[in-house]
Amino acid sequence: MHLGLIGGIGPAATVAYYQRLTARLREMGHALDLTIVNADAGTLVRNNRTDARQAQAEIYAELIGRLKAAGADCAAITSLGGHFCYAETEAISPLPLISAVAPLDVYFVAQGLGTLGLLGTDVVMRTQLYGQLTRTTAVAPQENREEIGRAYIDMALRGHCTDDDRTLFFEAGRRMVADQGAEAIILAGTDLNLAFDGHDPGYKVIDALDVHVALLADLAAGRITLDAAMKGSS
Questions:
Q1: Predicted TM-score (pTM) of this structure
Q2: Domain spanning 3-100+209-230: which CATH class is it, in words?
Q3: Identical fold between 3-100+209-230 and 102-208
Q4: Which InterPro entries does the UniProt entry name for this protein (predicted)?
Q5: CATH class of the domain comprising 102-208
Q6: Cβ neighbour number for residue 29 with a 10 Å cutoff
Q7: φ and ψ at residue 107, rounded to 5 degrees
Q8: What is the pLDDT of residues 107-125, one digit of tens each?
Q9: Domain coordinates of the chain in residue numbers?
């Protein structure tokens, strides 16, 4: 299976997808067949903030057309924030789309988790992952959600995490665990690995990027069908 990725949103997440897909396929004994196209992060941020779903979907569709021309069999968006226009994109996509949100419910239920705390863009947190978690409950920071969302976007665009950013994210997660009953914190922004990788915040953390990568790797290796992957199930 030839995977197509829409990258660039942000660059650190694109690198993480590539590294983790390569490593996982190597462990499986399979070569990775992959093409990546670059979306402009600044344009996506503007469209996200203004809820310009159709405009961003049309940008994605053009990029997915390039992936199809390169021989890709399916496409995926390497940004949970970038999923704000997923339905609009799916309707005009030249290739089947593999959602990064759909597999999360399946994974959380399998792990025995019922309440999850969200960190990511303001839209992701405010809409509780666009209301697409149907089998589990999501909570978001209550006091400074917009500040956290701005800090996340700034970090993603510059490609590195400051100490102040890390403190902000870690404390937000701690409060969701202590005050809102979160059993784990979802890194629902694909650039949050910049803050959390190599650090122990003192609570359970699940990187949504890893869940998506696992699904894409199983698809690439032929362990699951395209139909199953599109439903988020392995």
A1: 0.89
A2: alpha beta
A3: yes
A4: Asp/Glu/hydantoin_racemase, Asp/Glu_race
A5: alpha beta
A6: 7
A7: -65, -45
A8: 999 999 999 999 999 999 9
A9: 3-100+209-230, 102-208
